Amino acid sequence: MLWIEKYRPEKFEDIYGQEEVISHIEGFGRSKNIPHMLLFGPHGTGKTCAVQSLAKEIYGDYSDENLSVIQAGILFTQGKTWLENEERFSHLYKKEDSLINNFKHIVKWYASMRPFEADFKILAFEEADMLPFAAQAALRRIMEKYSRTCRFILLTRRSSTIIPAIYSRCLPLFFKPLPNETVVRIMKEIMKKEEISGDKIPDDDLDLIAEFSKGDCRKAITYLQITAAKSDEADIIELSRSEISSLSAALFMSIKAADFAKSKQTAEMMMIEYGLSAGEVINEISKTARREYNDPRIALILGDADYSLTEAGNEYLQINALISNIISEVFN
Known about the structure:
This protein is α/β, with parallel strands linked by helices. The chain is 60% helix and 8% strand. It has helices at residues 3-6, 19-31, 47-59, 63-66, 72-78, 80-85, 99-112, 133-146, 164-167, 180-193, 203-213, 217-229, 236-256, 260-272, 278-292, 296-310, 315-331, and strands at 37-40, 67-71, 121-126, 150-156, 171-174.
């Protein structure tokens, strides 16, 4: 299991290095009333965890029913194909409509839903910087219409990508890159829980990982896990190359466990957040498969998927089909 998932913060007090901004959000949670918000800052600084913690504070056991998250980055990268195959949205998807019209329809549907045992629900948009102008203009009108029963939270790396009409309606809160000492503290806590001694990973290595991660706690934890699995000393350049290999190993483990949803999520992370093409993802899966489970059926499926890409097939659709085929033909 990836440590970034295993040690993902679940409560406000678990989010380190953002004391000022978390105090504001936690105050809104205690008052059971929040404004529209724009949470911006680099990856791995706690934005998504803060929204989930806020929902738990306000709604308690009903947080899942009252918090809806739309992954704008995936939506506007993969387009209508993703909507058609995403279980949460497939019943709302209209094949004859454009992507923007589908977006408006889905957002209106979620925003108009009656809150469950609450005065309002929360609709959050991850990677809101990927929302094109037309989508943001439509979102602004929806915000005006449904603001009484729905609060909108946008999560983005850059606030400058949000149009003024939305920005002016939101409370902007900046999540700063984590200081190196905070990143080191988090890594030491994980090492204690994993029973890893300071002899295995000395402080100098932790300082090096923190410096190289540039305030991204998620990246630091990934490097820490790779270092813990190595038998020799850490090489930060090698670690950066190994980060993709670690994700590829996690992807293959999910495939072996026949967990399509988790496999799909990891593959999308590799393509969107790490910039890999579908061909590069196939190559990483191939290397991992040869090492972990050398089965000729997997090689044939990988070859078919690689050929389909040369015929201009949709990259995300081909990767999803590849995952599905391996699970059904090899691990089911």
